[in-house]
């Protein structure tokens, strides 16, 4: 990194001399060349000034601001020549953090700024910045002072930060990188790219999430480099003991986010950058997509086939061929003569219609959207004021400048007609943004950037996020109180506030299935839980086996969508013959059973910032072996999933974290803290349930809301200790939850040899329509004598000998259930 340019280092004194010399020479030699300022390292700290939670330190030329954001988050910024940029960030949510207390101390060697949890030390002699925990253990420290260099071509500076790689340190995060979860030894770039048929280790892909997590000696912290320019990360690739991040514009601005658990880091980062609002419940059902289903007769046939075969499905996606010559917001009337009628018919069958939208607007004088955009100056312009034009699907296009709120409002309102026609969700594609041939916009393209102005160098990485933001806000406005559903391919940190995402144009190979497993975990710990991969692979042809294995993983992907390229074979659940169809149906049905559990995990992400998918490295960060075990994870905190990602295998190794686990399929009990070879023939996937859990289950429906639920099934897995479980309920499609119209239910189970108790605490203001739970208790170690509900004996309790399951019905508002062992309990 330091060899990015080979310029000789020049001290400020030398610069001064050159300037003086230049001035003198100007008189006699007017064509003097003044060299750009080459790499400058911060030198010794000359002074500290304080203003509330901001601390400005200077070396006489450069200023550094240390700002306390919360008890656990500190931000550092550097102004190379003493001028900070105006504070503005697309990433940061409107957060309210707590600062209990800030202390500053000065010692002969350093300045120290402390909260009640962390301190930031700035060493006077050389400006080294470090972060320490309450016990003064160094968690993160500079390996060189921050440095900068003039960017002669564009103005501004290259800015660099180098950290020490602590002994045994490993790295995670960075969004959608297609590689192993552990980033150690690799270098990455943030520059959203249309990466058709990408491969393992291709870089960069579509998203720009400049946030990583470091773990050493079992302690985690996070680094969020909030800079939208093309940026680079080096995780001890160039030098074994150094980690660096740098960029060629904007400001060195990073947030140190304290742990000590990876979970704390991810939650704090997510609080900083925001979480996804609750999606409509149907969006967590199964989606079927293809490039493209058309004409209308094919779409209807698809819908009818799902229903005839009784394979659940909630959403059908229409790719670019629904449009008239790929003009956004139009319909090809030959293929779709009456979209409203068709969408109505699909809706009658219980399907939601999702349409794709791209940012490129066709240059066509007869096309009203082009006219409106051009007349109102909504499109991006080049440095010299020409319109930015480039080819995408429709041919020559111009592109809205989504960094302007006026343009976003215009774009959002364009969805009004779609909403009236019944479109239920919008898939935002090609928003890196893509221009065929050149890849993306030339760098001189100008952007409004909310009035702060910038070239495409600065706006490229947030273009896609601002597009989907416009889409989300438009849908929200026009769907009234209904929750929007959006998908985006590109995004910057914080994009999760507006959209779900998918991993783009993958391939139908086993390694891509593995990559999908790794990438969705990575996205999840990078603040983006609501994500999926194209099940079955976008390009290429999966075998029936690969398709089913991918579908199995899809059940546990927060977004479950099959999608494929136009030049590939079909990918419907019935494409691969009746044997595979049965399996596809089994696993899609499983998704529908698990919906209340998945929805509750979503709520925990939305409200409390817990990631939905959790890698082993997060569950047990104290075990270094877990860092490379990135092909299993939990969804929420109760279900552990170990997808089968190899061809032809009928078993796989699974590491179970400490504690007791139930095998989901045969209910056998396994002890964690060790590895097992678990059978996994094609009709199954290793799933384990944490003992003590209460897992809510829906009956299988063909789509969300097909009929009222009469009873909610609660699956209770006995454990000889205390366990809390959690469930969220509401109406599934309005913003009522923002007015507290929802229920949070806490189930607390505690078992011993004499009894099992289940306590329920309900908070909130929603009333589900059903009156009863059907409760199934698994793994009771004793024969029961009676079941007490709020102290009174229940009748009609059955104990099924096989599998030792106890079944009974209980009113939904019960407070306490006690299952009491019989005296001759072991018989
Ligand atoms: C891009 C998308 C893909 C879509 C295609 C056509 O390649 O990533 O999902 O099908 O464009 O719109």
Please characterize this protein's 3D structure.
This protein is of the alpha+beta class and 827 residues long. The protein has 12 helices and 54 strands. It has a 9-stranded parallel sheet. The structure holds alpha-D-glucopyranose. Alpha-D-glucopyranose binds next to loops.
Write the layout of secondary structure elements.
Elements: H1 12-28, E1 40-41, E2 47-51, E3 54-58, E4 63-68, E5 73-79, E6 103-106, E7 110-114, E8 118-123, E9 129-133, E10 138-141, E11 147-150, E12 157-164, E13 170-173, E14 187-190, E15 207-208, E16 211-216, E17 219-225, E18 231-235, E19 242-247, E20 252-258, H2 262-273, E21 286-288, H3 296-309, E22 315-318, H4 339-348, E23 352-357, E24 361-362, H5 368-375, E25 390-392, E26 395-398, H6 405-413, H7 415-421, E27 425-428, E28 446-447, E29 454-455, H8 456-478, E30 486-488, E31 491-492, E32 500-502, H9 510-525, E33 531-532, E34 534-535, H10 544-555, E35 560-562, H11 578-608, E36 613-615, H12 616-619, E37 633-635, E38 639-641, E39 651-656, E40 660-663, E41 669-671, E42 674-679, E43 687-690, E44 694-697, E45 711-717, E46 722-729, E47 743-751, E48 755-764, E49 772-778, E50 784-789, E51 792-793, E52 798-800, E53 805-811, E54 816-821
Parallel strand pairs: 15-31, 21-22, 21-35, 22-23, 23-27, 27-30, 30-32, 32-33, 34-35, 45-49
Antiparallel strand pairs: 1-11, 2-3, 3-4, 4-5, 5-20, 6-7, 7-8, 8-9, 9-10, 11-12, 12-19, 13-16, 14-18, 16-17, 17-20, 18-19, 24-26, 25-26, 28-29, 36-37, 37-38, 38-43, 39-42, 40-41, 40-43, 44-45, 46-47, 47-48, 48-54, 49-53, 50-51, 50-54, 52-53
Helix pairs in contact: 6-8, 7-8, 10-11
């Amino acid at each position: 990194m330091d060899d990015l340019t080979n310029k000789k280092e020049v001290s400020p004194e030398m610069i001064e001399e050159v300037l003086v010399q230049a001035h003198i020479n100007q008189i006699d030699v007017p064509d003097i060349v003044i060299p750009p300022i080459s790499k400058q390292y911060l030198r010794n700290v000359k002074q500290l000034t304080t203003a509330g939670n901001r601390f400005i330190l200077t070396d006489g030329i450069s200023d550094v601001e240390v700002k306390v954001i919360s008890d656990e988050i500190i931000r550092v910024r550097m102004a190379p020549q003493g001028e900070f940029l105006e504070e503005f960030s697309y990433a940061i949510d409107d957060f309210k953090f707590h600062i209990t207390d800030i202390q500053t101390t000065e010692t002969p060697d350093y300045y120290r700024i402390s909260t009640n949890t962390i301190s930031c030390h700035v060493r006077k002699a050389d400006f080294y910045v470090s972060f320490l925990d309450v016990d003064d253990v160094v968690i993160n420290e500079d390996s060189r002072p921050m440095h900068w260099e003039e960017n002669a071509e564009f103005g501004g500076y290259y800015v660099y930060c180098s950290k020490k790689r602590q002994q045994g340190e490993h790295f995670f995060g960075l969004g959608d990188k297609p590689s192993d979860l552990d980033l150690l030894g690799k270098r990455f770039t943030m520059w959203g790219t249309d990466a058709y048929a990408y491969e393992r280790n291709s870089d960069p892909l579509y998203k720009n999430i400049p946030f990583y997590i470091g773990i050493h000696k079992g302690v985690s912290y996070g680094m969020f480099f909030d800079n939208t320019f093309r940026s680079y990360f080096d995780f001890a690739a160039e030098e074994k003991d150094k980690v660096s991040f740098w960029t060629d514009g904007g400001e060195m601005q990073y947030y140190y986010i304290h742990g000590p658990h990876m979970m704390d880091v991810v939650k704090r980062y997510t609080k900083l950058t925001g979480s996804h609002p609750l999606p409509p419940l149907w969006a967590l059902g199964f989606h079927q997509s293809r490039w493209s289903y058309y004409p209308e007769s094919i779409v209807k046939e698809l819908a009818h086939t799902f229903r005839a075969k009784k394979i659940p499905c909630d959403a059908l996606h229409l790719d670019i061929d629904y449009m008239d010559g790929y003009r956004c917001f139009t319909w090809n009337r030959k293929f779709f003569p009456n979209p409203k009628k068709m969408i109505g018919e699909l809706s009658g069958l219980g399907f939601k219609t999702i349409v794709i939208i791209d940012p490129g607007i066709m240059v066509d004088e007869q096309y009203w959207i082009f006219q409106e955009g051009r007349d109102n100056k909504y499109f991006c312009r080049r440095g010299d004021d020409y319109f930015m034009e480039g080819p995408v699907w429709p041919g020559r296009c111009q592109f809205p400048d989504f960094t302007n709120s006026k343009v976003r409002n215009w774009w959002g309102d364009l969805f009004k007609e779609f909403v009236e026609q019944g479109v239920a969700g919008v898939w935002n594609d090609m928003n890196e943004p893509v221009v065929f041939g050149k890849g993306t916009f030339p760098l001189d393209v100008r952007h409004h950037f909310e009035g702060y102005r910038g070239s495409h160098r600065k706006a490229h990485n947030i273009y896609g996020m601002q597009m989907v933001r416009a889409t989300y806000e438009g849908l929200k406005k026009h769907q009234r109180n209904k929750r929007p559903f959006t998908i985006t391919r590109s995004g910057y940190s914080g994009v999760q506030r507006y959209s779900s995402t998918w991993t783009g144009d993958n391939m139908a190979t086993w390694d891509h299935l593995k990559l999908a497993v790794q990438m969705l975990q990575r996205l999840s710990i990078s603040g983006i839980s609501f994500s999926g991969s194209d099940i079955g692979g976008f390009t290429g042809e999966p075998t029936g086996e690969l398709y089913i294995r991918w579908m199995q993983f899809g059940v546990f992907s927060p977004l479950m969508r099959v999608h494929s390229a136009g030049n590939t074979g079909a990918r419907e659940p019935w494409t691969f013959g009746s044997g595979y169809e049965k399996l596809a149906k089994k696993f899609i049905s499983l998704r529908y059973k698990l919906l209340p559990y998945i929805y509750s995990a979503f709520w925990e992400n939305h409200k409390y910032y817990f990631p939905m998918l959790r890698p082993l490295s997060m569950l047990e960060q104290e075990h270094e072996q877990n860092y490379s075990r990135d092909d299993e994870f939990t969804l929420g905190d109760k279900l552990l999933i170990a997808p089968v990602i190899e061809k032809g295998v009928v078993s796989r190794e699974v590491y179970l974290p400490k504690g007791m686990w139930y095998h989901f399929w045969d209910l056998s009990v396994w002890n964690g803290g060790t590895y097992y070879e678990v059978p996994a023939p094609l009709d199954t996937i290793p799933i384990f349930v944490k003992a003590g859990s209460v897992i809510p289950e829906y009956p299988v429906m063909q789509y969300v809301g097909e009929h009222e639920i009469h009873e909610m099934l609660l699956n209770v897995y006995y454990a000889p200790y205390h366990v809390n479980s959690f469930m969220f309920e509401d109406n599934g499609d309005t913003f009522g939850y923002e007015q507290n119209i929802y229920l949070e239910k806490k189930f607390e189970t505690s078992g011993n040899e004499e009894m099992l108790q289940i306590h329920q605490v309900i908070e909130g203001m929603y009333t589900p329509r059903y009156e009863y739970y059907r409760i199934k208790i698994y793994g009771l170690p004793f024969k029961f004598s009676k079941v007490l509900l709020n102290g009174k004996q229940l009748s009609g309790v059955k104990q099924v000998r096989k599998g030792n399951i106890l079944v009974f019905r209980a009113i939904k508002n019960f407070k306490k259930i006690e299952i009491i062992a019989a005296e001759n309990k072991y018989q």
